[in-house]
């Protein structure tokens, strides 16, 4: 099943006319998936605090012939409820709809025991990895409920290991949040497809920063895992909801088959 979805390549134009919000879109998996969504026709709202790198993602989408994306700079650590309500309102006013949300933005400050955990760091980590996602989803739900085929997708992580501290707690809570959200919207009226993906170790800046003893060249690139992200965001997934896809560690030279297909 996991391997099948890693090899999933949509039909060209499958996401045409859809608007998809991607958090953490400046780099890593968020950037790779945003480019893939755009390639298959979606208009992307690129959300991150790293503006220069967001602009690079924007430029790459435009260079590939994709629909013009929207850049939305926002720091998940510092934003409040009003900021997320304003985000949803802006998406509605500027783009007229919202069909999907990828919750991919995350932050791991440090590894430490719970006994030693800095209280301020705990608060910032919980806010970035959990509370911000609740506020964003809550603000976007009214728009998603108007879509013909809405989807919410979570990037998740292993959560129950020693020293993961607030990050592990937040990611564990996000898994529960995903399950609850999926159950609450698993009915004919206001159906929203809600799933989560744990990509395993991938060559991202967060991984390289927090695992200095692991050679980056031993990890697969983010582009290797875009298949499942495309599948669960698009109509081919149908009513499949509440699923947790846990990918095994990929070989460093793993490639997504869609790399060989023509760009938009």
Give the overall shape, derived from the CA principal axes. Answer: globular
Strand arrangement across the biggest beta sheet: 3-2-1-4-5-6-7
What share of the residues does DSSP label as strand, in percent? 5-15%
Q: Any idea what the radius of gyration is?
A: 17 Å
Poorly predicted runs: none
Helix content: 25-40%
The CATH topology is given as Rossmann fold
DSSP summary, beta strand count: 7
Order of secondary-structure elements:
HEHEHEHEHEHEHHE
The CATH architecture category equals: 3-Layer(aba) Sandwich
What distance separates the N and C termini? 28 Å
The protein's oligomeric status is single chain
Number of domains: 1
Structural class: alpha/beta
Given this structure, which CATH class is correct? Alpha Beta
Mean pLDDT score, rounded? 90
Query: CATH superfamily name?
Result: NAD(P)-binding Rossmann-like Domain
Strand and helix layout:
Blueprint: H1 2-6, E1 19-23, H2 28-39, E2 43-48, H3 51-63, E3 70-73, H4 81-95, E4 100-103, H5 119-144, E5 151-155, H6 165-184, E6 193-198, H7 205-210, H8 226-233, E7 244-246
Helix pairs in contact: 2-3, 4-5, 5-6
Describe the protein's architecture and organization:
The chain has 264 residues and is an alpha/beta fold. It has a single domain, classed as Rossmann fold (3-Layer(aba) Sandwich), CATH 3.40.50. It has eight helices and seven strands. Strands 3-2-1-4-5-6-7 form a seven-stranded parallel β-sheet, with helices on both faces. β5 (151-155), α6 (165-184) and β6 (193-198) form a beta-alpha-beta unit. The radius of gyration is 17 Å and the shape is globular.
């Amino acid at each position: 099943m996991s391997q099948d979805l890693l090899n999933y390549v949509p039909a060209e134009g499958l996401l045409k006319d859809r608007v998809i919000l991607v958090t953490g879109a400046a780099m890593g998996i968020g950037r790779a998936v945003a480019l893939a969504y755009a390639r298959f026709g979606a208009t992307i709202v690129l959300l991150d605090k790293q503006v220069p790198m967001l602009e690079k993602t924007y430029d790459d989408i435009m260079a590939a012939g994709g629909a013009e994306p929207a850049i939305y700079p926002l720091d998940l650590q510092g934003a409040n409820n009003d900021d997320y309500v304003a985000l949803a309102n802006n998406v509605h006013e500027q783009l007229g709809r919202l069909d999907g949300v990828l919750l991919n933005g995350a932050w791991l400050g440090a590894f430490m025991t719970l006994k030693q955990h800095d209280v301020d760091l705990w608060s910032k980590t919980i806010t970035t990895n959990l509370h911000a996602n609740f506020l964003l989803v809550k603000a976007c739900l009214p728009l998603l409920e108007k879509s013909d085929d809405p989807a919410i997708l979570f990037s998740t992580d292993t959560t129950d290991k020693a020293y993961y501290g607030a990050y592990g707690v937040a990611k564990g809570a996000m898994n529960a949040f995903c399950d609850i959200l999926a159950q609450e919207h698993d009915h004919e009226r206001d159906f929203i497809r809600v799933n989560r993906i744990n990509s395993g170790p991938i060559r991202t800046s967060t991984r390289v920063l927090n695992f200095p003893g692991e050679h980056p060249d031993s990890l697969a690139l983010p582009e290797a895992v875009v298949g499942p992200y495309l599948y669960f965001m698009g109509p081919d997934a149908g009513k499949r909801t509440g699923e947790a896809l846990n990918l095994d560690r990929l070989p460093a030279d793993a490639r997504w088959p869609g790399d060989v297909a023509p760009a938009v």
